[in-house]
Amino acid sequence: MRKFVEYVFLTFGASIVAMGLETMLAPNGLLDGGVTALSIMANALWGIPIYFVFLGLNIPILSRCVYHIQPRLP
């Protein structure tokens, strides 16, 4: 049950961040940092959807982290 509550809070927090990105940052031309900023810039320059660039840049980062951390996982 505790894990379920953690996942609910994680999903809720991610939804708030996504809503803030789509309603405040991107429409006003504000940049955050890192992959988010690159996603907003690609959207402004070339019209590529923010989520597409965000996923495209985060998946290789995630896979590299999993590759390096995996031997230490229980």
Polypeptide structure, described:
Helix content is about 80%, strand content about 0%. The chain has about 70 residues and is an all-alpha fold. The protein has one domain. Helix 2 runs antiparallel to helix 3. InterPro entries: UPF0750_membrane, YitT. Keywords: Cell membrane, Membrane, Plasmid, Transmembrane, Transmembrane helix. Its main location: membrane. Pfam families: YitT_membrane (PF02588). It is a multi-pass membrane protein.
Nutshell version of this structure?
With 74 residues, the protein is an all-alpha fold. Helices cover 80% and strands 0% of the residues. α2 (35-46) packs antiparallel against α3.
> What characteristic shape results from the CA principal axes?
flat
State the major sheet: none
How large a portion of the residues is in β-strands, by DSSP E?
under 5%
Radius of gyration: 15 Å
Query: Whole-number average pLDDT?
Result: 89
The structure class reads mainly alpha
Separation, N- and C-terminal Cα atoms: 21 Å
Query: What sequence of helices (H) and strands (E) makes up the elements?
Result: HHH
Summed up, the helix count is 3
- Spans of at least 5 consecutive residues with low confidence: none
Using DSSP, what is the number of strands? 0
User: How many domains make up the 3D coordinates?
Assistant: 1
